[in-house]
Specification:
The complex is a heterotrimer.
Chain A lengths: L1 H18 L7 H12 L14 H14 L3 E5 L5 H11 L5 E4 L3 H4 L3 H4 L4 E4 L8 E4 L3 E3 L4 E5 L14 E7 L3 E2 L2 H12 L7 E5 L4 E5 L2 E4 L6 E7 L3
Parallel strand pairs in A: 1-12, 2-3, 2-4, 4-7, 5-8, 7-12
Antiparallel strand pairs in A: 5-6, 6-9, 10-11
Chain B lengths: L6 E4 L3 H6 L1 H13 L3 E3 L9 H5 L3 H14 L5 E4 L2 H14 L7 H10 E3 H8 L8 E9 L2 H6 L4 H7 L3 E6 L13 H5 L1 H16 L5 E4 L2 H14 L4 E4 H5 L14
Parallel strand pairs in B: 1-2, 1-3, 3-4, 5-6, 5-7, 7-8
Helix pairs in contact in B: 5-6, 11-12
Chain C lengths: L7 H10 L1 H23 L4 H17 L1 H14 L3 E5 L2 H14 L4 E4 L3 H6 L1 H7 L3 E4 L2 H9 L15 H11 L12 H18 L2 E4 L3 E3 L4 E6 L3 H7 L3 E7 L3 E2 L2 H15 L7 E5 L13 E7 L3 H4 L15 H4 L4 H4 L10 H12 L1 H4 L1 H4 L6 H5 L6 H14 L5 H14 L2 H19 L4 E2 L6 H4 L4 E2 L6 H10 L1
Parallel strand pairs in C: 1-10, 2-3, 2-4, 4-7, 5-8, 7-10
Antiparallel strand pairs in C: 5-6, 6-9, 11-12
Helix pairs in contact in C: 3-12, 16-20
Classes of the chains: A alpha/beta, B alpha/beta, C alpha/beta.
Chain lengths: 231, 255, 472
Amino acid sequence: MSNKTQGGRATILGWIRGSLDRGELSAEQRAAIDSRLANPRRNLIPARAQVDHAAQVELFLEYLGAANGTFTRVAAEADAPKALSEYLSSQNLPQRVAMAPDAWLQGLPWEKGAPLLERRAGPARPEDQVGVTGALAGIAETGTLMLVSGPDSPSTLTMLPETHVVVLRASQIIGAMEDGWDALRKREGQGKMPRTAIFITGPSRTGDIEMHMYLGAHGPRRLHVIFIDES
Amino acid sequence: MPETAPNVGLLVTCLVDLFRPSVGFAAVKLLEDAGCRVEAPRAQTCCGQPAYNSGDKRDAKALARNVIDAFADFDYVVVPSGSCAGMVRKHYPALLADDAKYADKARDLAARTHELMAFLVDVRGVEKSDARYEGTVAYHDSCSSLRELGVHDQPRRLLRTVAGLNLVEVPDGEVCCGFGGIFALKYGDISGEIVRKKADAIESTGADTVCAADLGCLLNIAGRLQREGSGIKVRHVAEILAGMTELPPIAEGRR
Amino acid sequence: MQPTSANFIANARDAIADDNLQLAIARVGENFGAKRQQAVDKLPEFDALCGRAVEIKDDVLAHLDYYLEVYERAVTASGGHVHWCATVEEACETVLRLCRSVDAKTVTKGKSMIGEEMEINPYLERHGIEPIETDLGEYIIQLAGEPPSHIIAPAVHKTKEQVTDLFHEHHRKFGKTERLTEGEDLVAEARELLRGKYLAADVGITGANFLIAETGSSIIVTNEGNGDLTQMLPKMHIVLASLEKVVPTLEDAATLLRLLARSASGQEMSSYTTLSTGPRRADDPDGPGEYHVVLLDNGRSELLGGEFQDILRCIRCGACYNHCPVYTSVGGHAYGWVYGGPMGAVLTPALIGLAEARHLPSATPFCGRCEEVCPMQIPLPKMMRHWREQSFQRRLTPGRERLAVALWAWFARRPALYHLGARFAIGWLFRRARGRGHMRKVPFMRGWTLTRDLPAPEGGTFQQQWRRRKRA
């Protein structure tokens, strides 16, 4: 296979250069592109994302709601377990969740705030009804949650259960997707990415039957954020 | 005024020449009222869109050169049609860009050429019409006027000053009527379906008259309304603004 | 699929006569069109973003060879593989080899237009592998055995009743015998059945909205989450993508993403925008063990540097479909191949040949709405005109039309003769109308008079009357 692939590459690159009526790029041209890639520049970022943090928080929650997401706002970390437990009751869901093996998330006072809640840490299983995760960030511009996969953050938790609950701190709210890239580069290094980075804006939906919108097509039917104002 | 009156060449357009000469005379009246001296050179025939849109670039270029020569000596060239004005303003310079003798002339003509409504309002500063027209009138934007030339407010501003006239907007007014020149003949089913929807939209306004600045759209819309037995009158906007509405509306017989 | 683009006129006629189809496609313009406008109005920077996006893609296309090399290096560095395929045959063979390398029996699929180009589903079926479409729209048309009719809403031509019938017929074998008529129930049943498929699949195949040179990532944008389940659960994730999907950096992708969902469905963002980079890492608790990108040319490299290069900027949002008076009259199947609407009218002749697809760029009234709403500012009408010029030069345009244009142009180039001829022709038409103002039938004008009358000429030409007035 690799031979054919090699051949395919040379052929296609040759065709591209032929159509563009040139040979390979010069060393300077290549260096210019390398530099562009090594020093990624932001393009235009909408003004609405570039407001102060308090306004970004409000914007995030507003757009989350507009995308059919829901949220409970609590004052402190210690209030999050109770909020989750109450949310599950309000939706007639069992007090049983699959939770990301994330140290901060696991370290919240679950026994105290949600004594009846059963928690299993790890990736989602088909029978799980509720997945609970943290997030890398919440993006104010569009009410979008940014999650990345990793040992403490299995990607199946975001997609397999019918209900996805995200516990998010106000300090995690950023203006735009570009702020998320910066955070990611800081974590992973320039040019490196985790296997999956997912931007979630509201629950799963489909418009494929007569363009009517139905929630819960394949991914979660509900997306709920437990929003902690102070961390 | 006479000493400053600009010389305007009227590019009549082949459709007006053949189907509705009164539109040409209405345009002449509006231009003369706006202080212009008007001539319609006999050397003009057609702007060349049928050839251009059929992919016949050679004939399109020949006809473009013909128009350029015919209108070489005018201060302005005015066209009672958005699509023919768009052809001259937007497409001639590109079409003749490689023509050593005509490239500059094409750009020059493009700069002197205006769609009638835009010319009256933007160039001559006309603010009102003296005409009277009793009725509820819908104005249809031709695609070329709207998108190639950016003409939208000018005809509406003038129509609003016509005594007795109540102007209404057509829903989804930015949608094409389906004319498209040869398209209407070659792909008659599709063109017919598009104009059917346009006729429905016009009828939904409750207007008794529909007008536009392109005879192509008007023949298409009038043909469809007539086929449906609709009583809506169809006229070129110049007829209404010039108060020249003695002639029966488009597609209607003499009473 | 065997293209039927050559039968465009007949396809269109059938489509116009199909009441169900007309109801369905009327929804496209009403829904997507209105929502796009609202989304654009809410983002004052929209036009400026379009301008920047065009610069990004133009830079990529001008240096496509190098960006692709950089992209491949990044994919390899993250543990993935890029397979360069010049043709759809090579691409299909590559996918099959990859599937066989993990003994795949079933393959789940996210929506991919490149997959449609490749006809990967029938190909895999012929070779004993079951492909299962997971996007609800794609799933519906897979059951129906039809190609997509819209680039982002593939089953938009199907009514709810038709979906009811399809599910009733095809789900019986899974023990689902109830005839469901509520949309909610239909969605739930598809969800339940496809859930088992995701978990059982050996390979997940998705498309890619963008490839990122900086990181070697592929991006998919979905509302359903089907693409995510498709790629995260099986052992192997295969991405089908064409060359021009590459963008330089994550920041550039962000700029294009701001345009994509807004232009497509009027959403600020689709529900899921997912970047995949390589296979699962050693300490990841889930994700696919292998990651392969099948990079397809299929004639695209030939478009570079020429009059059709700009179509390679297309981000497949479908805005041109939604705003096209032709598409919203005939739907997607009339176009006879994978792509429809204005972008299809430009791209299809390049991919399957002008001889087969010559009608597509001809069958438009040049209304210019597509170019106006295109976030990538692709001059679609101009490129349709280029195709018409090629049709004319290569004599693919029918002789009758060529003759008519040539004859008319011959006269039009001779003003004196033209005016004389015009007087005769218009006199004849005038007499034919007999004062009625309109005609129901006119020789050589059947295309016109089929659906509308021809208004009669007023009588006499302008030139004739103008000379008379000047003499007076």
